[in-house]
Design a protein that fits this description.
Elements (H helix, E strand, L loop, with lengths): L6 H33 L10 H12 L3 H51 L12 H5 L1
Length: 133
């Protein structure tokens, strides 16, 4: 069994890492939001209504180092999945191109054989019952 990893295996590993980064990000974000609300003395002190409070928390998150690091790690994991997916897509496109070229060569060879008179076609490709008649 080969130990060489395929592009699809690397993509799967990148997707697993992305899920881990997403989980870590969600946890860090919840902890940071909790700290922000506690430091403000409660949610009511962040704004008059829900929109004001959401905006205040969003602005405060941008200054939280742990949150910013988790967000950067999440974005890097997302970018890695995008790069791996592009590699897989490129490999699939290349394989399809080679398959089309192979079919084109086979079709051209069959067409060339069809244009030859029966006595010039290699014996293995000739219907000998037709020649005998």
């Amino acid at each position: 069994m080969s130990t060489r990893t395929t592009k699809r295996q690397r993509l799967a590993a990148a997707r697993i890492a992305l899920r881990d980064a997403q989980d870590h990000h969600d946890l860090i974000k919840a902890q940071a939001e909790h700290r922000i609300i506690e430091n403000a003395g409660g949610a009511k002190n962040l704004g008059a209504n829900a929109d004001d409070r959401t905006r205040a928390v969003t602005l405060a998150l941008a200054n939280d180092p742990a949150y910013c690091a988790a967000l950067a790690a999440l974005r890097e994991a997302q970018a890695e999945v995008d790069r791996m997916q592009a590699d897989v897509d490129d490999a699939i496109d290349q394989r399809r191109k080679l398959d089309r070229q192979s079919r084109d060569r086979a079709s051209a060879a069959l067409e060339a054989l069809a244009l030859l008179p029966p006595d010039r076609v290699p014996l293995a490709l000739v219907d000998t019952t037709r020649i005998a008649a």
